[in-house]
Amino acid sequence: MLEVQSVSKSFDGFRAVDGVSFAVARGAITGLIGPNGAGKTTTFNLIAGTLAPDAGSIRVDGRAIEHEPAHRRIAAGLARTFQIPKPFAAMTVLENVLAAAQDQPGERLLPALFARGAVRAQERRNIERARDIIAFLELSRVEREPARVLSGGQRKLLELARVLMAGPKLILLDEPAAGVNPALLETIMARIEEINARGITFLIIEHNMDLVARLCGEVVVMAEGRVLGRGRPAEMARDPRVVEAYLGGVAA
Ligand SMILES: Nc1ncnc2c1ncn2[C@@H]1O[C@H](COP(=O)(O)OP(=O)(O)OP(=O)(O)O)[C@@H](O)[C@H]1O
């Protein structure tokens, strides 16, 4: 589903991502782990298109996307969340989810002028879909509330809702467990499992090893801009190179 091949990115001569290669199988939930500063978020930004790689290729479903703008990658089925969610604070939960819908005919001039009925029908379908997704993520109670009133965990759920509204086949999650209380974390993990069971592939950056051990069939471990290893979470946790990278990270 995703192939990252020899991808590099430097900031002012500092190699944040240095010849990184890995693949994510269709239908898998793969973890991207490693100590702080390993280059995980930079790798996400390169895959999602918020940063352009200096070198290397990125393929989704066999199609090279590294030169495509971020919005085209979303249309190609790639969606991502952020470590710190950034909902539209003044908009309601429902409006936030609706804003993530792809291919809204109302945004195109000609259909808007000549097919008002069709536009309205599409909008109704979008609202129905958004409300189903909101219910699935247990946010119905706050559907009409502005996003600014949500807790940290609810914001993570709202991000997932927005991502689902875009209809992706591959979802990149940046620290879905960060700042989330244990009850909501259980909801988030269960929903990720259910979404995955419907055939959607995940790549997840996460420091919470309970989440990684439960959800991820395989992890890719990064340190200092490179891939240290890949394998099952329990295997990687025992790998001396991985242990050393984490200890080094703590010491630094
Ligand atoms: N825009 C930037 N300009 C300069 N340096 C950057 C930039 N973005 C990231 N870096 C540096 O690149 C390195 C990798 O950062 P990155 O955020 O990708 O790490 P990470 O593995 O996601 O870390 P964390 O787990 O703490 O989120 C860090 O040393 C960081 O300071």
From TrEMBL:
Protein's UniProt keywords contain Calcium: no
Keyword ATP-binding included in the entry's annotation: yes
Gene3D superfamilies according to UniProt: P-loop containing nucleotide triphosphate hydrolases (3.40.50.300)
A GO MF term: ATP binding
Chain ranges passing through the membrane: none
Keywords linked to the UniProt accession: ATP-binding, Nucleotide-binding, Transport
Domain annotation ABC transporter: ranges: 2-249
UniProt record similarity statement: Belongs to the ABC transporter superfamily.
Record protein name field: Branched-chain amino acid transport system ATP-binding protein
Species for this entry: Kaistia geumhonensis
